Known about the structure:
Blueprint: H1 3-19, H2 26-36, H3 43-52, H4 54-64, H5 66-69, H6 78-113, H7 116-137, H8 152-162, H9 172-182, H10 187-213, H11 219-246, H12 253-272
Amino acid sequence: MNIVEFLKVVLLGIVEGITEWLPISSxxxxxxxxxxxxxxxxxxxxxxxxxxxxxxxxxxxxxLYFNKLNxxxxxxxxxxxxxxxxxxxxxxxxxxxxxxxxxxFNDTIDALFYNPQTxxxxxxxxxxxxxxxxxxxxxxxxxTSDLKDLSYKTAILIGCFxxxxxxxxxxxxxxxILGAMILGTSRFVAAEYSFFLSIPVMFGASLLxxxxxxxxxxxxxxxxxxxxxxxxxxxxxxxxxxxxxxIKNNDFKAFGVYRIVLGILxxxxxxxx
Length: 273
């Protein structure tokens, strides 16, 4: 792997690590980055690579929230262990809608909607929705301010919102955070549940891509994957910490504005390309 290709991998890992957790659409950014920074690999490997480097991002969540996600942590009493098992139950329930529809129709959805026009439209649409939802919620007290109080009903409804993220440009974190806030959770609960919901979803998507691609990797391809995942892991830790710190004193309107601007840029670029 030469230095230029390595730098491309690093850049892709950085973009993945940031955009996977902030509600700004990793797909929208990857489409733009891929226009200017093309990795010297086959189209099939690139498709797999962009999904599998998410494993690094998943690992960041597991490391940062290891104690919260581990029901067998030494310091937990019986009640806390029960709450942790319950949390995992809510995460798994929330994964069902997108998991089922994703497995059955993912290729069809990509064939229909994976294009710059759809990405530009969904970036702008959900940017507007973020601003509208924040305006509606201004001054309201969330009905769920602690993750352990999240009901199974709300969890599966948030999972239904996650279905929207199957459309490129929507953003998995964006759709789940929006859904959670519409259903009455605080920004903090919405963000954390979105993080945890990503673990089985992204792991499953990565596993499917690996199986579909097969195990015939060249030495360079292995290095690309490992390097991309490592960079995504490091950057994801920083991005998650930033988001949790940011929403303590701020709302999501800035992300809504950013999405609208990015959507316009994507549309303009591909119109005049």
